[in-house]
Amino acid sequence: MDKKLTxxxxxxxxxxxxxxxxxxxxxxxxxxxxxxxxxxxxNFAAEKGIDVEFAPHASxxxxxxxxxxxxxxxxxxxxxxxxxxxxxxxxxxxxDLDHAQIPNLKNYYAEAGQLPHDPGHRYSAPYTWGTTxxxxxxxxxxxxxxxxxxxxxxxxxxxGKITMLSTDRWLMQPALFxxxxxxNETDPERLAEARDLLIAAKENLLAxxxxxxxxxxxxxxxxxxxxxxxxxxxxIAESDQIKFILPEEGADLWVDTMVVPKASEHKELxxxxxxxxxxxxxxAWVASNILYKVPNEAAMAKVDPSLFETFPNLAMTPQxxxxxxxxxxxxxxxxxxxxxxxxxxxAN
Length: 348
Description:
Order of helices and strands: EEHEHEHEEHEHHHEHEHEEHHHHHEH
């Protein structure tokens, strides 16, 4: 997922180097651009007396391509979504985390340690978690949406004012859920059924939009969009008429994680960085800054309660999130899934 907030200066050119005078080493962190508070890396570098290089990526697919091409060399901490971390672990490219070096793992909700992609945080440390639903303009729709079909088969009044996500695993979700199938579906016949539903839905779309859908809601160009909860919050911050709901057919649970490549040359520093992020005050600042939920109980307790009133999806409980279906690695089934996505995107 792309993220909204952006850092300035050298980062906008692709690389941020934070360099204290007494640097003892260099840590290379890969994350979505703007998915951290602007001062997080700077503060960590200053505290540890090190250099930090930031390598931004725009999507899971982008960092996976770079990671695989280099077999993880040149990275120390990589942020990516759980199914992609799962795939890298299956390929033997990730280090097991040394829990003794990350004492702040104790701050996680119990539910965060029970996620099926990596129970007990063997190779990944959850950074944020959330879900995907419908973000909409309450003042521009006749009634609040409650179904994925409100996007797939909209009323005439809403046709042409709808956006959907084009990112691989999320593009298929509205159709899969509407059909009663798993978000991790790999059966070719069911994928074909979802594909056909999505192709038919294209005639009513304004656009596929992974990055500016909330702005389209703010302007009124769109009235219903498929969106990630945290990113919907960026629209809510600009208009109290923007709301977020989970459709009645169901929704996903996504988890963005921090992992350490086996090829990392600075594993001790990598562990220190993960532990730093998991400090209650730091992780609370993350949640407050990027408006995404973090699976850190001690941190969420420090978030200003007024934010939960302004952005209700920030207040979703771990129990509510864990009741949703986790997006997981599809293994060999990814080929059929990706083929269905490509057929949707290429259809006229």
